[in-house]
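My main concern about presentation is that the manuscript never shows what a single data entry looks like. For the editor and my fellow referees, an illustration may be useful. For illustration, here is how one protein appears when written out as sequence plus structure tokens:

***
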Amino acid sequence: MIMWNGRLSLLFLAGLALLLGGCSLSRDRVRRADAVIEQLRDHSASCGQPDHCAAPSPYHGLYQESAQAAGPLHFVTLLDHGADSLALRLHLVRSAKKSIEVQTFIFAADDSGYLFLDELIKAARRGVKVRVIADQLFSLGDYTLLARLARAHANFELRLYNPAFDDAATQPLEFAANLLCCFFQFNQRMHNKLLLIDGETGLAGGRNYEDRYFDWDPEFDYRDRDVVVTGARAGAQMQASFEQFWAHPRTRSMAQLKDVNRRLLQVTREPAPPWSTPAWVRPARVAAISRQADDAQWIASRFVAPSFRVAEVDYFSDSPNKPLEPENRADKELTRHIITLLDGARHEIVLQTPYLVISRPARRVFRALRERTPELRVIVSTNSLAATDAFYVYALSHKYKKRYIKHLGFEIHEFKPFPGDAAQMIQGYEELSGPAEPLAVDDDLAPVPLHADEDRKVRLGLHAKSIVIDGRISLIGSHNFDPRSDNYNTESGFIIHDTAFAQALRRSVLRDTEPQNAWTIARRPRPVLVDRINNAINDFSTALPLFDFWPFRYATSFELKPGCQPLRSTDPGFYDCYEPVGDFPGVNLPLKSIYTRIVTAFGAGLVGIL
């Protein structure tokens, strides 16, 4: 009976998938919806000047200097603070004279998301051509809102990448049906992040449009990183990448989305409601950052003055049809460049990723590097279980700590949820909230509950994706250096060849590995005989795709003792200055620890997907 019920469920989902997937829109319906958009959208202009009333910006001067230089010249600025990154985004949008292009994985309906959207529509009203591509799964899933945005202004157009069953909003049944009928297509997402102004100045990195990426969430914020680049060569590369995604069949217009199309055809006689400034959750905060964005002198001192003059900067992006065109050289464009750069390392690799799940090609490179150059250092900054918002991914990576430490030589540092330097990492950290409210323990996508501490406020987690190779080559982008980024998601980012910039990025990443900000992961100290027996059983258990229940793991977390200086985990004096604090320090839910071990045991096959 149980088997028969299971088959009925599968048949039901398969039928549902065929039903939902088969109801594609006719060309006539798309043309009619396009006609509605053209007829009802706003065509007014708030500015009649040739530059469309662009705000004065020092970035205009930087581009002129770059364009007139005898050789390649770019101006590059590291953006470590979320609030700074948001203020600069607003300033750049206001400074646009001709065009604005945006790509994002997440576009949330919160203060930061609506603030950025509001600025884009205001720019369109000035006469600037604004185009936005958002991945469908986590972006503005309200089809009524999207139908309204389709009519917001003639200069504003939003498209969604890879919509499930050609709908803007994915309901739970549709989600399940997609997993059943179209898993590989549904699982592949556009993870690119890009803001391009006039084809001249571009901003890319790890940040999406949601409060937690800009130091605005009162409970959980990301330690993330962007870079802004001004220059002709990189500008042309960013423009070409965006155009490729914009014209690709997997990127759908509002008229091509079934639920939005249906709404548009219902309002053929209804004038477009004028876009008005949203009601903010924290209006004082929005007003303050808006004033900063208008202050060209502040922008110059904060971002332009510390910028680096760099000749060789390249923007790379995967093919929009990844991974459905494996024969296409651009299918894994960014991944190929990362592997090549890593393979050329001679002295040191500093790697920061929120998810330490190294792909098979990368493991081969690191293994070859260790055999060829045993003295090469590989310093890794990643999340602890207490800091991550991706519990399942951490649980899977927990299985392979020995592989990374012993066989690949990684020096791993796991970020703390309340780092000692939090006030310097997050602007306005002390005022952002009072004592954090407990997060829901039944939400597997939320960070795990921690030990109570009334003095602690906003919780932090790493989201930055960066590499520094031999102190001279830098990579900052959306690529997590994991199997999903290698094989499924489209990714993008900057590769920057400059020693001064690389040293600045290296200092930024290594700060996150300092003892007050991270736990050090190292081998457990055991008697030699016990260690050998444990290692043998551990190796056998880890090699199993299932039933990896051996509880005595090779490595655990360590905290620096008071009065000691930081040491490498391979230093003979390490255990005198560090004390073990358990596999999952800070976590206050024993069942979650057990759950972690269960996922570790049974989830090996899901590494490449999650």
About this structure: The longest helix spans residues 2-22. The CA atoms of residues 76 and 308 lie 5 Å apart. The chain has a mean pLDDT of 86. The two ends are 32 Å apart (CA to CA).
